[in-house]
Design a protein that fits this description.
Helix content is about 30%, strand content about 25%. With about 190 residues, it is α/β, with parallel strands linked by helices.
Length: about 190
Amino acid sequence: MSGGSNNRRAKIPHADAEIDLVPMIDCVFLILLFFMLCGHISTEARTEQITVPPTKTAAKFIDGGWKRQIINVFGNTQSGNPPRNSIKIGTKSFDAMGINDYTAYQGLRAVLDKVYDSAEKYKDPKGTPLMLPKVIIEIRADADTEYRVVQEIQQVVSDSIDPSDKMQPKKVDLATMRPFVNIDFTTRNPNDK
């Protein structure tokens, strides 16, 4: 009698032997919906469609007859070693050939010095002895321009570095400084000229 009882297995009664797949299907559809919506939002959120809210702290700048000087920067980072960036101001064009080539910045500064000398000046509203030119400098760079180049152009424009001294910070001498302080910056597609 005891040997026959070992062959019998105890059966545990199950109320429902089938697995309910409805909650799992609900979770899969919710995850699918989440990723579809997030992917749709990220493709629509591009920089061209973003509107910047109006500023509340800055006053609107009225340029009443100021000169506008445009500096175009074209990058070529896909080919060439080192990468080449072309800087064009007025009819002059300069090429920056890599990190340690400062001849383009020296040429740019020479043109800016002529623009500074010919421009009408006004006293610095912050009370320094600087005479500031009534010139708006607009730097236009394309998407292939290295950020380093744009930064260095801004430093050359503000006369804070010396391109003839390996781009070292300039010694501050307010009597000889020729800074441009009204600088606009715009970007464009590489194919736009």
